[in-house]
Amino acid sequence: MKKYLFVPLIGLITSHAFSQEIDISGQDLKLNLGGAIRTRFDLDPDRDIEEFGIDTVILNGRFSYKGLSGEIEYRLLGGFYPYQYVDNIGDISFPKKAFIKYAFDNETTVSLGLNQVPLGLQPFFGSTMIESLGYTMGIEDLYKTGVKFGKQFEHHHVDLGYYWDDAWRGEGTSNGTYYSNVITEADAYVVNGTSYKERNSSVVNYTYSDKYQDWNYSIGLSGYYAHLKDFEQNKGSRNLLGIHYATNNDKYGLKFVSFYQDVDINNKLISLGGYDGTFNMATKGMFYSLDLSYKVPQKYLNENITNWTLYSNYSLYDKTESDFKSTQRLVLGSSFFLNKNFYISTEWLFGKNDPYIGGSSYTQSLASGGTNHWENQLNIDIGYYF
Predict the structure, then answer these.
(1) E strands, the chain, where?
(2) b/e map of 8-20 (b: 16 or more CB within 10 Å)?
(3) Of 97, 279, 313, 355, which residue is 20 to 30 A from 104 by alpha carbon distance?
(4) Contact, 211 vs 203, CB < 8 A?
(5) Partner residues linked to 242 by β-bridges
(6) Over the stretch 67-79, which tens digit does the pLDDT of each residue have?
(7) 173 with 86: CB under 8 angstroms?
(8) What is the DSSP letter of 46?
(9) What CA–CA distance (Å, rounded) separates 142 from 149?
(10) How far is Cα 78 from Cα 67, in angstroms, rounded to an integer?
(11) Which phi and psi angles does 338 have, rounded to 5°?
């Protein structure tokens, strides 16, 4: 089936780079319009894959007027691997974010709309383009529709969120036409798929930040609770409890995130979807992510190359069910800016029972497991930001 062409990678789904924008400014009003065109090269000799094409077209905008601000971002895909099953760019499309934010002062904000759910380290758990398994599980880089309140107390920061709905559904061929992976009805090709929807999510995130000599550090806790209901009116809940830690200086960085997940339904697995595909996930287990990075000092670089970073990220979903195989991911990579407008990343991806890497089962790897051996592939991403 065409959906299994989706298996190789969602790839290039993050925005670690920012666009160069068009500024329209008045005395109090600022409007910034921008976007990006990202290309991607996939190499997987074990599956005879050697593909290059347009990965994503991004359109975004930001505005600010006194204490009021807002952001919107929309993504378009299609026509190239792994979305060659549709004809054109834009046949698959969805919003990433669309929200307004009001700052009462420098310490207090409220955001309304399609905004990031404050789970763990924000905005990402690590340095990679593909992100950690936390994204695959619908924990990292998660955007939903709701309201978020943020408050800074000297070294302490608290986010409280209530999300009554998922992200706005986009266009595509699947039930998973979202930027983030969210609990949704499985497509017909997913064996033992479920039809749950996640609603009325409550979240709290606390972080303490400080500095010791030339090292910045932060440590915190996150909690999440949501209601679940399927088409047969079976009910349940999703519970997440996590810790996070990060430290860095001008060269070295370390990030660690861990979550306990308990999806309380009468099933050992539940279906998620995003980027025009759906798959199953084990309902209970522990997630871990460890990210190490090194930023090459600018004095060693050509003036046209900036922010060259070397990084590695290891993530694990250790499932509670004894006969389910653990899912693991290891990423070795580097990224840099060229002439400010180009963002280039190269990542060697290793996965075991990982739905996004190699030929392991896309629909079952995050649940009961897939091939249960290490797969690998190479991804090179080149993005032009305008």
Answers:
(1) 22-25, 29-44, 49-65, 68-77, 92-103, 108-116, 143-153, 156-165, 182-183, 197-212, 215-229, 235-248, 252-264, 269-273, 278-282, 284-295, 305-319, 327-338, 342-352, 374-385
(2) bbbbbbbbbbebe
(3) 97
(4) no
(5) 222, 259
(6) 999 999 999 999 9
(7) yes
(8) G
(9) 16
(10) 38
(11) -120, 120
Residues 6+ apart with CB under 8 A from 188: none
Are the C-beta atoms of 53 and 41 separated by less than 8 Å? no
CA distance 102 to 65: 10
Identify the DSSP state of 2: G
Q: What CA–CA distance (Å, rounded) separates 255 from 241?
A: 17
- In contact, 310 and 292? CB cutoff 8 Å: no
Higher-confidence residue of 15 and 119: namely: 119
Dist CA 256 CA 358 (whole Å): 25
334: burial class by Cβ within 10 Å (0-12, 13-18, 19+)?
middle
d(CA 199, CA 237): 9
Number of residues in the chain = 386
Mean pLDDT on 244-264: 99
Q: For residue 118, is the peptide bond before it cis, meaning its omega torsion is within 30 degrees of 0?
A: no
pLDDT digits (tens, 9 = 90+) for 85-109: 999 999 999 999 999 999 999 999 9
Do the strands 156-165 and 197-212 form a parallel or antiparallel pair, or are they unpaired?
antiparallel
Contacts of 271 (CB under 8 A, 6+ apart): 183, 184, 185, 186, 190, 193, 194, 195, 196, 278, 279, 280, 281
Q: And the tokens for 298?
A: 């600018």
Taking the model in full, what pTM does it have? 0.92
The CA-based dihedral angle spanning residues 335, 59, 41, 360, taken in that order and rounded to the nearest 10 degrees: 100
**From the centroid of its chain, how far is CA 345?**
16
Q: Are 138 and 238 in contact (CB under 8 A)?
A: no
The domains of the chain, with CATH numbers, are: 123-385 (2.40.160)
- Residue 88, token pair as written in the block: 């054109």
Q: Which two tokens stand for residue 307?
A: 């922010």
Q: Contact, 313 vs 337, CB < 8 A?
A: no
Q: Which amino acid is at 55?
A: D
Sign of the C-alpha dihedral, residues 172, 178, 184, 187?
positive
Q: In this structure, what token pair is assigned to residue 52?
A: 């290059």
Question: Residue 384, SS3?
Answer: strand
H-state helical runs in the chain: 133-136
